[in-house]
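Archive entry: two folds, one per protein. Generate the first.
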Amino acid sequence: MAKKKLGLEDLGGFVFSTNDDFDGNEQEESDETLAPEDQYLEAHFSSKGRGGKTVTIIKGFQGTNDDLVVLGKKLKKKCGVGGSAKDGEIIIQGDDREKIMELLKKDGYNVKRVGG
């Protein structure tokens, strides 16, 4: 049986750099979170890759990961469902796009319905 070839993601966080001043502890932080009025969010509906379960995905959030998690928690609590907030997206279980869009608009966000 042939050995599996390793990709860069399989190397456990190694960073290869030709920069002599690179210390490996530099991480790119998201800039400050934009005000809700300056944010343009998209409300998507998806069931792809989730075993037929439907989810609402909020994309386009610009800000820190902590603020993303706080907004995700607020939306999940208001909808009474589970979900997650990571990689710049908020995933809410179920098709609650209309309710989520209403909540985001009430908070001052610019929200657009995308797809179906």
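Generate the second and append.
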Amino acid sequence: MRLENKIAIVTGAGAGIGAATAEAFAREGAKVVVADFNGDAARSVAGKIGESAVSIKVDVRDSGEVKAMVELAVSTFGGLDIIVNNAGRGMIGTVETTAEDDWDDIVAVNLKGVYLCSKYAVPALRARGGGSIVNTASNIVTFGIKDRAAYVAAKGGVAALTRAMALDHAVDKIRVNSVAPGVIWSNYYDKMLKEVPDPDAFVAGLKARSPMAELGQPDDIALAILYLASDESKFATGSMMTVDGGASAW
């Protein structure tokens, strides 16, 4: 039970990496606040976990909702030891083709959300004598990718913010790390399969992005997050763990 007696919040936990992380945390003994913009999805995941989880609908761009999320963890379970800032969204576009409103929204969800969730979580973590913050960045911050300008910029900000927070809060015994996933199969790709003209070629193209020629699964990232959240990584802070099938080694 690697997280026994720990209390955690996972954002973006209604599906994919977030859901797998919330479930992994619960299996390892944690009490979990399952937070997602889709309240029904959050309730479904929390219901699957059982009495060691509660759900909340949260827009990580909204400071009031984020504050209420942290307060729920404290009031329901008695404090906060871990927060996983996983909520995010992406979109296609260069700086020329991306509308200003879309740019602002991508940055708000992916980067401002990490700022707000951490801002309200830090006092609760400090009150418990320290804790762990894990942010979901991306392997594209290492080498970039075409036609994803806003997303690459926002995730690059997450990686940089992780390092800054690690320095700022080491004195509080709060460790701050990030994971950098590669292509991880999710509901997003399930939907795309229905839209592309050649699903087999689409999947083959995704697999070709890494030398392992495989697609990652949500559990692959959840287990990395579990390590960074647990005391097993007690000497790790300000780091980024890349889990991408070797794509960033090319």
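Annotation attached to the second fold: The chain has a mean pLDDT of 96. Residues 100-127 form the longest helix (28 residues).
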